[in-house]
Every structure is written in C-alpha cells, then in structure tokens.
Amino acid sequence: xxxxSIPFRQALSKLTLPVLIAGAFGxxxxxxxxxxxxxxxxxxxxxxxAPVYGVLAEPLSTLRSGVDxxxxxxxxxxxxxxxxxxxDRLRQWQSVAQALDAENMxxxxxxxxxxxxxxxxxxxxxxxxxxxxxxxxxxxxxxPNNAVTKGQVALDxxxxxxxxxxxxxxxxxxxxxxxxxxxxxxxxxxxxxxAVLVGNNGARPRLLFWPEGSPPVEGERITTSAxxxxxxxxxxxxxxxxxxxxxxxxxxxxxxxxxxxVRLFDYGMRGVLPPEATVxxxxxxxxx
Amino acid sequence: MRARARPSIRSNPNLGRRLDxxxxxxxxxxxTIGLLLLLATPLGLPGQAQWQRATALCCIYFWSxxxxxxxxxxxxxxxxxLADLLAYAPLGMSVLIWLIAHGLAMRxxxxxxxxxxxxxxxxxxxxxxxxxxxxxxMTSLLSFxxxxxxxxxxxxxxxxxxxxxxxxxxxxxxxxxxxxxQA
Lengths: 288, 183
Prior knowledge:
The complex is a heterodimer. By secondary structure, chain A is α+β, with helices and mostly antiparallel strands. Chain A contains 3 helices and 12 strands, in the order αααββββββββββββ. In chain A, strands 1-2-5-4-3-12 form a 6-stranded antiparallel beta barrel. In chain A, strands 8-7-6-9-10-11 form a 6-stranded antiparallel β-sheet, with no helix packed on it. In chain A, a hairpin with a 5-residue loop joins strand 10 and strand 11. The C terminus of chain A is likely disordered. By secondary structure, chain B is mainly alpha-helical. Chain B has one domain. Chain B is globular. At the A-B interface, helix 1, helix 2 and strand 1 of A face helix 3, helix 4, helix 5, helix 6 and helix 7 of B.
C-alpha cells in the first residue's frame, strides 16, 4: 500500500466530492450524447436481474392471488348477484355477435374479401416494473433466443398494453400507453373519427386532437388506428370517460397496474420506431 | 465481543478479525444497495419507485451524518449509478443529487449530530424536499417535457415518513452489526 503524507491525504479527501460531482455532470452529458451506450448498460443490468425477478415473481403472485381470494370470499354474495345479471346481458350479446359474425362471413364471401393474415405472437411474463418515477413501463422476461423485436405490440387478455421499446438478451422493456411519452393514434368507434391518445403518467391517458364536430362520447369504445404505421387497426384500447373538469380520458381495458402475462404481436409495423429510446423520450409519436 | 489480550501501540489483528471489521464497515453501503435491489423487485407496492429512491436517500443521509467513514463519496456515486440504471432515470441524475445530499450532511454533521432526533428529521425533510424538487426539475429539463409534479411530491412525502422508521432500524444497526468497534 502506498503511504501518503497526512496533509496530502486530507487534500485528496477534500477533492473527492467535487471530482465526483463533476463526474456526475459528465455522466449526464454522456447519457445525452450516447444514448445507445446507456441503453445497452441498462439492458445488460436488466438481463442479469430478469431471471432473479422471474423466480421471485411466482411466489409473490401466489401470495397476491391468495390475498385476492380471501377478499373475494367476503363479497361472494354480491359478486354472484352481479355476475348473474352480467351473464344474462352477455348471453344476449353473444347471440347478437354470432348473428353478426355469420352475416359478416356471408358478406365477405360475396365480396371476395382478402382476410388479414393472422399475426404471430409470443407470450412473456411481466417480471418487474421498469418505469421508475417519471415513466410507466414494465420489464418482460423473454428467455434467450427469443423472437422479440422492437416495435412489437403488447396486449394483455383485455386490450392494448404498449410497445416494446428496449431489448436485452433475455429481457425486453415495454412502454405502457399511460407513459408520458406515449402517443397512440386511435379511432372513436361510433363516429369513426381519428384522435390521439396521449399518456400522462396517470392511470387514464387523455384523448386529444379529435376533429371538430365529433367529440368523444362518454362510454364510447376506442380502438387503435393504422395511421402512422405504428399499430394495426382495430385493437381494443379502452372506453371514454370524462373527468369532472370535462377532460376526455380513456379508461384502458388492459389491467395496467397488475400485468402478469402479456402477448407480443408482430404485425411488422416499423412505422414510428424511436431511433434510440431513453426515459421520457417520444416513442410512438403520432406526428401529424 | 472479545476482550483484547494486551494493549499495544500496533495491534496485528488476524485475518478473520480484519475481515469482520471490513464487513461491518461496509455494512452501510451493503444495506443501501440491498434495499435498492429489494425495492426493484416486483413486490407490487403502491408507489414502489418512490419508495426505492426515498429509502436510498434516507440511508445515504443517515450514514453520511452518523458514520461518514462508511459512506464515502465513492459509495454514494456507485449507489447513484446503480439507481439510475435500475430506475431508467437520466444517467447521472441520482448521482448528482445524492452527492449533494451527502455533501450537505458532511457539512452539517458537527452541529446536527449533537442535536436531538427531531431536528435531524427536520433537516432531512428539507433535504428530501430539495432532492425531489431537483429531481423533478432535472428530469423535466433532460427530457424536454413538463412532467406532472405529483410524483415528486409523493416521493418527498414518502421520504419524510420513511425516515423515522428507517432511522430507528439504522441506529440499531449502527450500534450492533454494522459497528466495526465490535468486531
């Protein structure tokens, strides 16, 4: 060990803090200048941690479902009544849907309609929240040799979740539609008007830029639009809900606060991919 | 605890004892990194990202005040880099904010450590509020966006509330398993 004189050592220890603070500024500059390097470092760390999170996720989800079960047994009577009523309503809708499906098939047969190819998909487990404080994203454990690519569309069993923005070797990061950088081109189902769904880091993203004269109606269904070639048309997103301040928001169908498994669809959409993705960087920007 | 055999000017401790001293001395950094990694796991707590950063700030401030030898600036730097990579925050931001908090604690420690717990807590409230504000402002600036300030408010609130609880546990650690004098 090198022996230094005491005054020199004291001077050195006084210098450490300013030098490290300068180093912090340097890192910030590096992070802005070479986003690719930072992204690689992040995903390398995520690759190391994803299997650990994956192992931890299973007992945690068991615990959570146990607590849920306990809570559900307390409300079993009301739940049963509500479900019976809902079931009756859904049965009516089922017959309507079957009739419409049959009619649709007949019409398509008459029109020589070329059906859309069935998209391929793979399923991945959500292992961790990867948003931090100022972003909304989740980390998927995808396993090595996966076919996950940037720009794939993530859906849960109910609706649109987001898009893959960063890719590691055995993990992938999906930016949610609630993220403040998220812009999703959507269609209002009743009026067929186009609008943009803008995330705000809250639970319900906002609806903006609808054409004058066709405002979104409370309870209206929202689906994706194929504009900007970022999403395929017709994926379910959510329903319109007005706040008390008359702001149109969308209640997403997807259970974004309790994602466990998502399906990643490859629609071959390479429309608006970010050149590089960091936190709070515009990702699927619908610039119009 | 073992009584020393014979007082001498230069004791020559054996390897086991030196390892013990080193482990106890590095316990503050290990605790901070451990909490950071633990709170990055999918526990599903509400506001978990805020908890993660708030507890790290609590630990850094506490150890910088009460045992700065075990929380040197280099440790703060490494903890900051890890937190930024884990939380997808702009790289270098937590490093800067936590180094500033560390510097403030080092400057105030002579006066503060003599005062009671409540005043230390008040000083931490000031630091946590400043840290959350700076973090919000820097993230907004670095991403060229006006971010909603409610996340920063929540973070500052959690940090203020978590400090007394963590401080009780950290004080116990300071006196027992993280104390190099007890090796």
